[in-house]
Amino acid sequence: MNSHLQSLINWVQEQHLDIAYISNPTNINYFSGFYQEPEERVTALFVFPDQDPFLFTPALSIEAVKKAGWPYDVYGYLDHEDPFALIAEHIKERVAEPTSWGIEKDDLPVFRFEAIMKQFPSATFPADASRYIERAKLIKSPDEIALLEAAGREADQAFAAGFAALRTGITEQAVVAEINYTMMKAGVMNMSFDTIVQAGANAANPHGGPELNKIESGQMVLFDLGTVHKGYISDATRTVAFGPISDKQREIHQVCLEANLTAMDAARPGITAAELDKIARDIITKAGYGEYFNHRLGHGIGTSTHEFPSIMEGNDLVLEPGMCFSIEPGIYVPGFAGVRIEDCVHITPNGNEPFTHTTKELQTFSD
Amino acid sequence: MNSHLQSLINWVQEQHLDIAYISNPTNINYFSGFYQEPEERVTALFVFPDQDPFLFTPALSIEAVKKAGWPYDVYGYLDHEDPFALIAEHIKERVAEPTSWGIEKDDLPVFRFEAIMKQFPSATFPADASRYIERAKLIKSPDEIALLEAAGREADQAFAAGFAALRTGITEQAVVAEINYTMMKAGVMNMSFDTIVQAGANAANPHGGPELNKIESGQMVLFDLGTVHKGYISDATRTVAFGPISDKQREIHQVCLEANLTAMDAARPGITAAELDKIARDIITKAGYGEYFNHRLGHGIGTSTHEFPSIMEGNDLVLEPGMCFSIEPGIYVPGFAGVRIEDCVHITPNGNEPFTHTTKELQTFSD
Known about the structure:
Creatine Amidinohydrolase; Creatine Amidinohydrolase, Chain A, domain 1; homodimer; elongated; 6-stranded mixed sheet; alpha+beta
């Protein structure tokens, strides 16, 4: 049995649960090695304190489950069948009346929660598997760090492809096309999220994306991208100049870079997530841009782009070796420009190591 | 006020609800015109029987909400703030104590459901907005059908790009790269799902995806793809021959094609979803491949790739003009080959019209 699954079963035993229901596709993959793209059909992993676990999937996924090497039972259902009636039958073959359930409260929708309660009217839900899983994933093993490093190398290649595509008049989306094409031709199976290329004032919209805007000389261009490498994620951001830029643009980049580098220097065992956020935030605030840095300094990374821990005010988690997260200060001046500079790092005994190595100093490109 | 939002408010009034909480990003977009990529932060739309609605989003999305033209209030929150405490404050400014709630049970996770109950201990949840929304979206307007047609034309272009990329030794994933690159360079912002190219026996895994397998002469190659056009989705599948194929491969394609064409002929007002499924399934079963067609005939399409109605056994919904769904029989022979042939159609007063027009007759490509 793989160590992730064994740890989950240990948790089920410690919590005195009769059953745990894992519903999030990324987490099902983490414990079972089988990944199903999210869709409306039901894919579920059920784990017991002293019985073998089983997977439940659409019938059309059975071949994929076997190919993934899952060694325990898997049951399929057809589209016209009631999945929770079948799930209940398979559970009752193992435990006649499970009352104490662990569920992923961050993931399980109310409809399926009610379906479980309908099949098992005496069910109680004392344990939130979401909280267990975020803790279980918090310290990455050397093998996991090696995969995150490989994903980071791919992100560095993706930056190079994006920078090479810059020219006057190309749209943001066409630059995205070049990046994704380069990576997929190189054998990358998925980008970890929709690649972001934003130029000029569009980059001041940190939750936006690429558009059909044409890139023009004198703009800064923000690239936020990553890949999935064997289930592990890279995520990094660089902001570069295209043609000559103004002193004000240069200043914003410089302040953001200083915030990034200072936080990179400070990230080490013993400091808290909140303290690290404050170190970067104070630099930006002191420079007069505090109101334009309207998100946390970073987020955990691993099998999901955003996972535990949040590097933010109020999080007193003390950093430890093996924790992996982003350091990504940003300054977004509406109508003018946006800069974000991001590496993901893993904490080491004496400091940290980034997964991406593309230079963060201001680079200038031109036709 | 747009008609989608007005209809939602009418439903809230008819159901005697104090409030409805829309949580699914695609549905928030459907009602508000603002789309937020799914992530762990909270984006929510709250609607009342006789007060203006409001959006609640991460602070970093406020600019994007304004850009989207949302005419009512929007409130942001910072990463370290408790979103549901803030949401409760904004709700209570409008309704002191909302007790009767409509929520999207297919979408809302238990954690957020419990957060609402914590803020509003007297809350009850008598109405499932998921059921309302699937019905509200069921009959597409002429404007929506025009968008689905535009998305379908893009899918036809994507097939052409994929067929043109076929050559001995190219990997499935490299063909995907060519398809996505062609579409994104042409200004398509997103594919509607991860483009699927599967050759030979890999196509017998209908829930799998492209791999790094090399395509060889003598294989059939399955393409399943689509685009997002202004929020509306295309989804279509073709299976072609690469080089000379065997009589058995040809037979599977022929049976699948007959099932597809017969169902396309039969899809018209008055027939039920279950009857349509059976028409295609009987052809495949009679030819001896019934066990290898292990999914429903089709799914609704619109602002999501899979929506209401399912074209399957047990669904006695009578088809009506304006309903839009896929017709996609498949035959998956493990270890040998897989064929699926899919168009999405809209029901017209006298029959149906497909959104995609790439020929479904067996096409053969070679180096």
